[in-house]
Amino acid sequence: MKKMTGFINEIASLAGVRGRDALEYTMASVMFELTGARLLSTWSVAPRDGDIGVRCCVTLGSARCEHCEVTSCTLPGDNVKPLDSKPALKNCYETKRHFRARSGVCGLHRHVFPVANGHGVVRLVEILRDAPMREDEERLVFGLLRIYRNHLGINDYGDCDDLTGLLNRRAFEETFRALISPKLGRKTSPFGPLRAGDETRGPHLAMIEIDLFKRINDGFGHPHGEEALALLARLLGENFRETDRLFRFGGETFVAVLPDTDSEGAAAALERLRVLVESFDFPLAGRVTVSIGYTGVRQDDTGASASARAEEALYAAKERGRNRVCCFEELPAGAAVAVRG
């Protein structure tokens, strides 16, 4: 009875979770606790150079033995891993069925579960345990994943931009509030636990705008403009980490929120994006460039105040010739000029 009460309480906690980031971490925590996992990872399915890749969203727990050690990697790197490099995940993705096998990691047993929507498998949940799951434990996981899938669908319906699939401005304020929750002494972020040393890194916010977008619409027509927006959204997704959050603010303006990174890391990621867009061949619109302004997020910031500084840096980038990245903190006083287009 005590175990059942705890289970009901865990399920009830999901009902109050809002936002994809909190949902990812809460669901992983619930499954980790209820399944007795040694190591649990959730993976998102992502495009990778025309192929399929996976990105680690959350990892909880550790697996240690005399000859090997696998521990949490909760803040993944920039690169998407090819699905072919993860045979167990690939098997689950391709068959859309639960995969089970001895893992080879300290003699643990691996279970991989798919999370699918109408478009196919969108998440994979990997669990390592000391013993294989019983049938009733597997049913429990499938039940939790149905709740997870439904929550993802609800969040997507209200919080995503129809054209690009990115989060919309409606979702921005809530995500931003969670992002700047008190940081001193914390061991987790709204996007999951932090790696050692990440407590000293701060969030950054970037505003990204297609240069001379009106010329694309006027010269080629609105369908070409919409194609450019959709393709830029795809490039954004390929360039940034799973832990970064991407928004379409409307029109040709996008916002990226980069948690737990330093100024140098933010500058490198944004410059990489600028080069990626400039070198990409947009089939209908031809050559497209972006101007980018970014700023560090302060403890007393609101979404509006941080966005205003990033926008000022964006206008400075446009004033300086477009197709460049500018940091608000590096601007001389009065340097930004509101230049649109």
Q: How would you sum up this structure, described in words?
A:
This protein has two domains: 2-159, GAF domain (Beta-Lactamase, 2-Layer Sandwich), CATH 3.30.450; 167-330, Reverse transcriptase/Diguanylate cyclase domain (Alpha-Beta Plaits), CATH 3.30.70. With 341 residues, it is of the alpha+beta class. Residues 64-79 and 182-200 have low confidence and may be disordered. The chain has helices at 2-15, 20-35, 87-95, 135-159, 169-179, 213-220, 222-239, 263-279, 303-319; strands spanning 39-48, 51-61, 63-64, 69-70, 81-82, 99-102, 109-117, 120-129, 167-168, 188-189, 192-193, 202-210, 245-250, 253-261, 290-296, 325-327. Helix 1 (2-15) packs antiparallel against helix 2, helix 6 (213-220) crosses helix 7 (222-239) and helix 7 crosses helix 8. The chain has a six-stranded antiparallel sheet, sandwiched between helices.
- The coarse overall form would be elongated
Low-pLDDT residue intervals, each spanning 5 or more residues: 64-79, 182-200
Write down the domain tally. Answer: 2
| Alpha-carbon distance between the two ends | 64 Å
**Largest sheet strand order:** 5-2-1-8-7-6
Rg, nearest Å: 21 Å
Q: pLDDT average, as an integer? A: 79
Estimate the helix proportion, in percent.
Answer: 25-40%
> Could you tell me the strand content as a percent range?
25-35%
Q: What is the level-2 CATH architecture name of the largest domain?
A: 2-Layer Sandwich
Under CATH, the topology of the largest domain is which? Alpha-Beta Plaits
Q: From the helix content, strand content and strand pairing, which structural class follows?
A: alpha+beta
Give the helices and strands as they follow along the chain. Answer: HHEEEEEHEEEHEHEEEHHEEHEHE
How many beta-strand elements? 16
Major beta-sheet overview:
6 strands, antiparallel
CATH superfamily of the largest domain: Reverse transcriptase/Diguanylate cyclase domain
Number of DSSP helical runs: 9
Q: What is the CATH top level name of the largest domain?
A: Alpha Beta
